[in-house]
Specification:
- By secondary structure, the chain is an alpha/beta fold.
- It has 2 domains: 114 residues, Nucleotidyltransferase, domain 5; 159 residues, 2-Layer Sandwich (Nucleotidyltransferase, domain 5), CATH 3.30.420.40.
- The protein is 39% helix and 21% strand.
- It has 9 helices and 13 strands.
- The strands form 3 sheets. The protein has a 5-stranded mixed β-sheet, sandwiched between helices. A 5-stranded mixed β-sheet has the order 11-10-9-12-13, with helices on both faces.
- Strand 1 and strand 2 form a beta hairpin.
- The radius of gyration is 20 Å and the shape is globular.
Length: 308
């Protein structure tokens, strides 16, 4: 078995890398997505990035992780709203472009796979991977595999209604978790409370730790909303661990200590899971894509040429 290349397509950046025979990334790169140029231009950038990696590393397979609704079995990006993709047969197009077998995955489920094998989910049979960034999603990992649901839409934790009748969400609902607890929501809500523009969620967390009352309120409301959603997830799914990723997870104790306490407060008969920070950070999706490509080779190794 030989190495693979991997891509993780995000709204701002396309992350790429190469992995050895063990599927572990040892080199990474990135390109601007340029989603404002339209879906065709984004696709061409993805194909060009893949060609660049393939020319550099001569891989035996490729893996790609994309956001939105992804049908891994069909190899289709069903809907990636931020990229403008609908019903895009991405796996087949990339395979044709590269002349290689390609594995397609959902970015969060791919990240969950990476955390399961080499990150904070190691050794856990069932855990929930929850990246909290611009949006919020989840991957339920069971026996090392992501649960996709019957319509490949499982894991949309960010659209669980936690504040009925609350702020309108782009999904069409009101009071979704993302409208209160995502990094984008934390920054937006602080600006609404203070009139100060340009303050990030990281800054809000720092200001909350320093005693800024508006920041404390916004920060605590985000944690309380996430605790409500995680309590529902624990009740339904009974995970052994909850692995929190994304930008807010880097806040450390000021985020995790009150979050753990808030979840514990809400539980009655349920078993409190471990709530841990993710270990792979922004590399999780790309690393997961590399592991998907590695698995593809393990199940269907390339034929050796005569004389090899």
């Amino acid at each position: 078995m030989t190495g693979v290349i991997a891509l993780d397509v995000g709204g701002t950046y396309i992350k790429g890398g190469a992995a050895g025979e063990d599927g572990i990334l040892h080199e990474s790169d990135r390109w601007f997505t340029g989603a404002e140029r339209g879906p065709d231009a984004v696709l061409e950038t993805v194909l060009a990035a893949a060609r660049e990696l393939a020319d550099r590393h001569a891989p035996a397979a490729a893996g790609i992780a994309v956001p939105g609704i992804v049908d891994e079995t069909a190899g289709t990006s069903v809907l990636a709203a931020n990229l403008g993709w609908r019903q895009l047969p991405l796996r087949d197009w990339l395979a044709e472009e590269l002349g290689l077998p390609v594995a397609l995955g959902h970015d969060v489920r791919a990240g969950g796979l990476a955390e399961a094998r080499i990150g904070a989910g190691r050794g856990s049979r069932d855990f929930l991977f929850v990246p909290v960034g611009t949006g919020i999603a989840a991957a339920l990992m069971s026996d090392g595999r992501a649960v996709t649901g019957s319509h490949v839409r499982a894991g949309e934790l960010g659209h669980l209604v936690v504040r009925p009748g609350g702020q309108a969400c782009p999904c069409g609902g009101r009071g979704c978790l993302e409208t209160v607890a995502s990094a984008a929501a934390v920054a937006r809500r602080y600006t609404a409370a203070t009139g100060e523009d340009g303050v990030t969620a990281k800054h809000v967390g720092e200001r909350a730790a320093a005693g800024d009352q508006a920041a404390v309120t916004v920060w605590n409301e985000a944690i309380e909303a996430l605790a409500d959603a995680l309590t529902a997830a624990v009740t339904l799914l009974d995970p052994e661990r909850i692995v929190i990723g994304g930008g807010l997870a880097r806040a450390g104790g000021p985020y995790f200590t009150p979050l753990r306490a808030a979840v514990a407060e809400r539980l009655t008969f349920q078993t409190m899971p471990q709530i841990l920070p993710a270990e792979l950070g922004h590399e999780a999706g790309c690393q997961g894509a590399a592991l998907l490509a590695h698995d593809l080779l393990a199940h269907d190794p390339p034929q050796r040429k005569a004389g090899q």
